[in-house]
Write a structure and sequence with these properties.
single chain, about 450 residues, 12 helices, 24 strands
Length: about 450
């Protein structure tokens, strides 16, 4: 376990500020750099759902930007992974911060939440090892994670040497046709019936789209009229199928990289509040559906880029809000039950790892808040949230600043699981069964979002 001790010690030094992160050679005017890194686990390593990499259909990428303004640097990064949780999230965030010459609080690290990709949580891995459980088929080997983490930090460090001036920021949005749909369908009796990412049941597919955010939002950083990078935000689970041994960025990667090739402009994609949103109404897991979904997502990205209006960059501000999520301790969620589950050989590997070890690791860090953040540039706001928030949180954030451009990225630290509304807990359905936080978290999360946006609200946060 020496690898784990070294990782924890190094992360603590960075988070506590004992390692110097003071940027050297900062410019007064705003500057930006992009970075890209292959973060694909090698063949033979586990993916989500205890699947194993047998073929690499597309490399899984980390894509991001380093922003520099007024003697500060900020990093926004999207990982083509399913989840990054607990201490592993803190470790990678700290490593990126060190490489960028900044502090962890100035790094927003979000997963795209692909299911043809791994879940990373070395705290959970350590718990399995301590209990004598072999986690080899559930989690990538720790040296693999540490190698990828170092490779990403190196890419960020190199990018800092390529910082260039930018003076314009652009916003655009477009409706995406027939991609997102609610997972929370209601049958004739009013009961919630889940419509998962791929659905062959004609009855479920015929049900309405339901509550979604139909708009894809795009933020462009530019030098004069020349775009440097585009950031895209859209709310849906991003997978068309999984469990077949492919490492793949799926329809998101298809659309994102196609636009990058066509435009010659760096493209980054962030998954929004999609905890209750999938492509299930329009997807039967066939190659045909994937191509159609990727094409319609690409059309939305291209239309949002075309609709972009550039304005001069105003002051760049970064906001953070620590949030203590109350942990669930009802039936099936207590620490003792999580420990029993991870030791239960009759449980599936997914249940033992995610429902047991990851959940227990989340319990054990109960005294440490999760940090939410937002980037503000004039009327443009980018909100960064943990877990898998329901789309209601994205719509709530946008409602607080109706005259501004508000983009929301979910899937930061994945340890809270699904972030449901209090109403959803009462209604039932799939999402509350995979939430590690109590129903009263809704009010706390909405207050944190309002604080990030600088809004004092008397609105009902329930």
């Amino acid at each position: 376990m020496r690898w784990f001790a070294r990782l924890a010690f190094a992360s603590a030094l960075l988070v506590l500020g004992f390692v110097s992160t003071a940027p050297a050679g900062l410019s007064e005017g705003p500057r930006i750099a992009t970075f890209r890194c292959d973060i694909t686990p090698p063949v033979g390593q586990p993916l989500f759902s205890s699947d194993t990499v047998r073929t690499i259909e597309q490399p899984l990428l980390a894509k991001g930007i380093v922003l520099e303004s007024q003697s500060q640097r900020y990093v926004l990064c999207a990982l083509d992974w399913c989840e990054l949780c607990n201490g592993s999230y803190d470790s990678m965030r700290a490593k990126i911060a060190e490489a960028a010459g900044t502090v962890p609080a100035h790094v927003a690290l979000q997963c795209v939440h692909l299911h043809t990709a791994p879940i990373i949580d070395l705290d959970a891995y350590s718990l399995l090892v301590e209990q004598g459980v072999r986690p080899d088929g559930m989690h990538v080997a720790p040296p693999v994670f540490l190698s990828i983490q170092q490779r990403l930090a190196d890419a960020v460090r190199v990018s800092v040497g390529r910082l260039i001036a930018f003076d314009q920021i652009g916003t655009g949005q477009a409706k995406v046709d027939r991609v997102a749909s609610t997972r929370r369908c209601r049958d004739a009796s009013g009961k919630i019936q889940p419509r998962f990412s791929s659905t062959r049941d004609p009855v479920l597919r015929a049900m309405p789209e339901g509550l979604i955010d139909p708009h894809l939002k795009t933020i462009t950083f530019a030098q004069g009229q020349r775009p440097i990078v585009r950031l895209h935000y859209y709310a849906t689970h991003p997978q068309t199928r999984y469990g077949d041994g492919r490492a793949s960025s799926d329809m998101v990667g298809d659309a994102r990289e196609r636009l990058e090739r066509e435009e010659g402009v760096f493209q980054i994609y962030f998954t929004g509040c999609s905890g209750d949103i999938t492509a299930g109404k329009y997807n039967d897991a066939s190659d045909k559906c994937r191509a159609e979904l990727a094409g319609r997502l690409f059309d939305g990205m291209k239309a949002a880029a075309a609709a972009t209006k550039l304005v001069p960059v105003e002051t760049i501000r970064w906001h953070t809000e620590p949030l203590m999520f109350p942990r669930r301790n009802d039936a099936g969620f207590s620490s003792d039950e999580c420990l029993a589950r991870l030791n239960n050989r009759r449980e599936s590997p997914v249940a033992r790892f995610y429902g047991g070890a990851v959940r227990l690791a989340f319990h054990q860090r109960s005294a440490k808040p999760i940090e939410l953040s937002s980037l503000e540039i004039g009327p443009v706001h980018i909100v960064h949230l943990p877990g898998e928030p329901m789309v209601a949180y994205q719509l709530f954030a946008q409602s607080l600043c109706p005259k501004d451009f508000v983009a929301v990225a979910g899937c930061g630290d994945g340890s809270p699981g699904y972030l449901c509304t209090q109403k959803a807990f009462a209604e039932g359905g799939y999402e509350p069964t995979a939430s590690n936080v109590k129903p009263e978290s809704e009010a706390l999360l909405k207050k944190a979002i309002a604080d990030l946006l600088g809004v004092t609200t008397t609105q009902n946060t329930q």
